[in-house]
Amino acid sequence: MLTTGVLLALATAGIALWWRWLARRQHYWRTALAESIPVNSAYWRAQRAGSGELLYVAIGDSAAQGIGASRPGHSYVGFVARALATASTRPIRTVNLGISGATLRIALDDELPVLSRLSPDVLTVCIGANDIADFDPTRFDHEIRELFAALPDHAIVADLPSFYFPPAQGRVRTANRLLRAAAAERGLTVVPLFARTNRQGMWGVSTQFAGDLFHPNDRGYRIWADVFRPAVEARVAALDAAAAAVAAPPPVE
């Protein structure tokens, strides 16, 4: 019969082996996903050259670029773009301004100047997750307000996704309180990415992430897109209704 001490030693050894395997796996996936960054970036640059009557623009980070997905178009931006194409009677052009690794500061410095030259019909914003590692609530509050001040009134903003585990989860909750307060002052629509991802629990952690356990995989990105879907479909329906009203002939007297 194995003693308690032996069982404990075996369990400890098993955990150590699992941890080393997980570390090697994460190292492999981080390298593989880093190599996908220029591929995804080139894909979205090519998409900008497309044509379409309605313009969909996304502000974001590597999640917007689709890092972790099986292909760039399986980012949440790609899934949202397809939902818009289905919902609208008019063709959609997509401009993805997301930058892998982007923080709020990078979005302000590098993405907003491009946005200022565009007139998006639909705009989604999902940014701030990369600010959590070195989280400063004062800086976050200042920068999220600066970002929101530059957005059109119809912008659709996601709060930060669940990080599932402490201490990052506590920082995310604080960041989301600041984000929602800033959005409320501007009257911006906020979609509940945190609540939807947090409900996935350990099932989501084990099935909806790429091998680096940080970026979503295709299943995870579909969930992100589903969070945006009601708001973006409502936006495009309003745009189509307005266009139809303008095109309608005047009533006969």
Structural description of this entry:
- With 253 residues, the chain is an alpha/beta fold.
- Helix content is 58%, strand content 9%.
- The protein is built from 9 helices and 5 strands, in the order αβααβαβαβαβααα.
- α5 links the parallel β3 and β4 (156-158).
- α3 packs parallel to α9, α4 packs parallel to α5 and α5 runs parallel beside α6.
- The radius of gyration is 21 Å and the shape is globular.
- The mean pLDDT is 88.
Index terms:
alpha/beta; five-stranded parallel sheet; 5 strands; 58% helix; globular
Low-confidence stretches: none
Apparent shape: globular
Strand sequence of the main sheet, in spatial order?
A: 2-1-3-4-5
Helix and strand content put the structural class at alpha/beta
Tally the beta strands: 5
What's the end-to-end separation, in Å? 98 Å
Largest sheet: 5 strands, parallel
Short description:
Helix content is 58%, strand content 9%.
Topology readout:
Layout: H1 4-48, E1 54-60, H2 62-65, H3 76-87, E2 92-96, H4 104-115, E3 122-126, H5 137-149, E4 156-158, H6 168-186, E5 189-191, H7 193-198, H8 201-207, H9 218-247
Helix pairs in contact: 3-9, 4-5, 5-6
